[in-house]
Amino acid sequence: MIIRRIVICSRPVSACLQNARTFSNHKIAPRIAVVGSGPAGMFTCTSLLRKSPAHIDVFEYSPVPYGLVRYGVAPDHQEVKNCINGFDKLFVNHSDRIKLFCNVKVGQDVAFDELVSNYDAIVLAYGSYRQRKLQTPGDKSTNVVSGSDFVAWYNGVPNSKAPLLDNSEAVIIGNGNVALDCARIISLGVLGKLNETDVPLERLKLLENAAINRIKIVGRRGPLDVSFTIKELREQFRVEGWQSYIEAAAREELEPEKWPAGIERKHQRLFELLRKHVLGSGPTDDKQCEFLFRRVSKEIKADENGRVKELIVENTRTKQREAFPCGLLIYCLGYESMVLDGVPKNDKVTCILRKRVNMSCFEGTIAMSDYWRVSMPSACSTRVYATGWCAHGPQGVIVQTQQQSAAVAETISTDLEQIQLQEQKPGVADLLKSRSVRYISWEKWKQIDEAEKERGKLQGKVREKFTAFDQFVSDKSPVN
Amino acid sequence: MLARRLLIFSRQFVNFTPVIRRQFADSASQTKTVKFISGNKEFIGKGKVGDTLLDVVVNNDLDLDGFGACEGTLACCTCHVILNEKHFEREDRTNPAGEEELDLLDLAPEVSDRSRLGCQIKIMEDDPEVIEVRVPSVTKDQRSA
Ligand SMILES: Cc1cc2nc3c(=O)[nH]c(=O)nc-3n(C[C@H](O)[C@H](O)[C@H](O)COP(=O)(O)OP(=O)(O)OC[C@H]3O[C@@H](n4cnc5c(N)ncnc54)[C@H](O)[C@@H]3O)c2cc1C
Ligand code: FES
Predict the structure, then answer these.
(1) Which pTM does this prediction carry?
(2) What is the CATH number of the domain that holds A405?
(3) Which ipTM value was assigned to this complex?
(4) Looking at per-residue confidence, does A166 or B143 come out higher?
(5) Other CB atoms closer than 10 Å to residue A476's CB: what's the count?
(6) Is the Cβ–Cβ distance between A114 and A15 less than 8 Å?
(7) Of A23-32, A226-235, A380-389, A417-426, minimum mean pLDDT range
(8) Based on the domain organization, do A267 and A140 belong to the same domain?
(9) For chain A, N or C: smaller number of CB within 10 Å?
């Protein structure tokens, strides 16, 4: 992507000590920094702009905003992306109170500590983009890719590496929605059914010319343990031209008498759908997507060029080893939480202490003092909050993120009402300029957005995404 | 749908003051009041027969931020509402939830037997003058992960 100019080392949260406040009587609008412009950040802004007089600066690492809505949500789910209209409207309706700084990485272009010194409150909403690793011998073989890399590729993330799609067999490891998204995009892509979406043209061509006609979706556990959501699962079964089915060996486990007693309606409906699609008679279509369960990955075998040729699994039903030939292996094992440099983190000791008082604690996550607040040193007068995937783990869909964010905004506005600020905080716009950080403002994003839609129109697509943004942040262009 | 888009769009240019009216019975019989109850808060808006509950939230600029994220295209379930028994039965008779709606409700936090999606529920002539629905929200006693 764009070369980062400065690397800033993070100091401990010493910045806190410099800004202890004395209270005075006149009201000053608080200044809030939001780290990340995904749904968590933007839904928080939506509520904050209504509930408090705050001025908000949103920092986004990527050159363009809205996180996984742009770069995660599948291209055939354009309606899910409608929330972008609401986000964009915030910058129009409240242009005096909210500013966007894309292409700014907190922890690199500006340190967390510097935000602490320059804002009254910080909202961490930076998601969790690190994919859990496969850790199977042979996982370094060519064309073994993570689901997030594959998703990033078809969604047009700059500099993502194109997978090789020239072999007829693909295996996808994982039983969650990302695995389903990958399978569906391949299924639809090879049939040329994504041509009107926002998959970048050159990537669309690769999908359309792909040789893949067999997909195996492989889960470690049983069919009742899947994390698929029913809508996405149904979509796979409905892809015309592909026969998508559950392996016959799962039939018994899917019988209603094997379902746990008293399960919720959503599980009943999901299990019913799985059961309905257990393979009955033989294959009908030449393109097939098979769901296999109880297979533990043991080894990835490569050909003489180092490219994946086979996944060896253990079938825990039969205790037999099986070999699944494949020229592409995608693993979708979920995302890992990570903590930005300088942000308080749960370590072993904190977790032991918290668990003693019956509080939950996961090592390596942001240290929170409750559902919304980050536990900052007591001398720190800057309030720090966290929401969305970075705070509550990479799970769930936009509705959960939206609800968490509405709740965090409520907490922030109540907290800030109770303190009277002594001085107007400066924010870090000048600091970024002094460091020649070439950020992309909301106005510039709108130029990009319009240009993308215009380019799309010429091709009969909703949008033709740019996959390089250097022209928008080159040295010759104005800073914002 | 298009009309709604236009409305959303035009809202940008109108200086909107939230309509919070305590007076329930409206002289125009086609206009009804919808009371959205979320936690211990109430948000009250007006809508015409034929408007969806999402239309009411949007047109009245109710403080239910994020409600209707996919703009009523059956893709998000942020418009999840819980109806009272009579209302649910009325809807279930004339406008039952289809498969798509049920699939989305399966994702909704705090789903109940009387859950529906607000973008699929229209104000009907049979409805009382004041319609009450519940909007689930994150409960405050959740502990940090
Ligand atoms: C493949 C995939 C498909 C999905 N499909 C759907 C779907 O169809 N429907 C649905 O409802 N949900 C879907 N989801 C879930 C949905 O995307 C998440 O619920 C939601 O995006 C989480 O929001 P967030 O803001 O916490 O994280 P994100 O959306 O990841 O946003 C975080 C943002 O922070 C930025 N950031 C990270 N680090 C920094 C830094 N150091 N400085 C500045 N900025 C930073 C990132 O670039 C990113 O833009 C999908 C998720 C994935 C992974
Ligand atoms: S508004 Fe998205 S489903 Fe109703």
Answers:
(1) 0.91
(2) 3.40.50.720
(3) 0.89
(4) A166
(5) 5
(6) yes
(7) A23-32
(8) yes
(9) N
